[in-house]
Amino acid sequence: MKSLAIVGLQFGDEGKGKLTDTFAANFDLVIRYQGGNNAGHTVYAHGKKYVLHLLPSGIIHAHTINVMGNGMVIDLDALEKELEPFHIHQLRISDRAHIITPLHRYLDAQAEGNASQKIGTTLKGIGPAYQLKAGRIGLRMSSLMNVDRFKFELKQLYDFYGFNEDVEAYVQRLTPFIQRLRPAIVDVGSLLEAAKEKGQSMLFEGAQGMMLDLDHGTYPFVTSSHPSPTSAAIDLGIPQGWISRTLGVVKAYTTRVGEGPFPTEYDNEVSQSIRERAHEYGATTGRPRRIGHLDLVMLKQALRVAGVTELAVTLFDILSGVEPLKICTHYRFQEKEIMTVPAHADDLKQVTPVYQTFSSWQEDLSTIRTYEALPKAAKAYLRFIETTLKRPIRFISVGPQREQLIEVSHD
User: Fold this and answer.
1) Are residues 51 and 42 in contact, defined by beta-carbon separation less than 8 angstroms?
2) Which domains does the chain have, with CATH numbers?
3) What pTM does this model have?
4) Looking at the chain, which terminus has fewer C-beta neighbours within 10 angstroms, N or C?
């Protein structure tokens, strides 16, 4: 069975959607295994721009079955709106995925309004949905198979928190969509097992990035799930061995949205220029992304945790003319050089990044289609990443369109 997992290795927004969309045409199933509509994949296809928050990126392709795994948390209002341009027959949703309701969004806003709890969430209710899931009081998609049962369980949950929104009106408004959605709600593990027996190919898609992983990211400034493909098995109900290749997506520099430590961040005219040229604003919230130099310490940790076998470097064209051009090779912490990411956020805030500086290039890379045609300085920058991380760079993105993806041969 042909299989590939695509994962972001930084703080999300690495351009995973473009890669997934590019490869999806060659796969039978595109499977997203975690996260909610706090994610945002921007995909350009058929002359249009699509911003996907819940749907797998393969939804653009009419022949592809798109699967939402039980590791996801799903806002029904958001899903209904996002599905409008697409066909529901392309979609399968795990009956074990959890549901986000107005209560979850309310709890998210309450936490963010408390200075001691603020981490810069998207206010979409993602964290509370995972909290209630772990607390064993969440609602799952299987509840939608019986509207009266869903209404009863929702009322119990609202009463538990003293949340006074009208359950009857909420369920009545959603009932037509729920009825439309029911045929798509399935046991995803069994679905994938049947697909494997038929020899169908699978593309696994994560949301956010590895440094936002609940366990291995910059805790507590993280998401509430595990973006790593190593967690996809439990998030889908399949064996880990079904994923044979893992493509790690690396932005040529680093960006972050929201609160949290960011060792290589800088804020000056150069970072402002990068932000405007690359339109570095959150696809979900529109917030300006923080800009920083490429950080190999974080990337090494992400590679190990995610089991990455090969790399894709994105937004490489944005670095043309950027000076100084730097890559962080290690940290200095408490008078020692370290090659690991400190577990505590306070310690990570105190590290001093140590850089290697590279020669810049001025050429426009957006029209280049082969690795050989890249400027000498650009190739040196890429070779350093490849050599240090000990993973081959298979793809280089020099623009948002599909044809602006350079495939690198490693014969």
Assistant:
1) yes
2) 250-407 (3.90.170.10)
3) 0.93
4) C
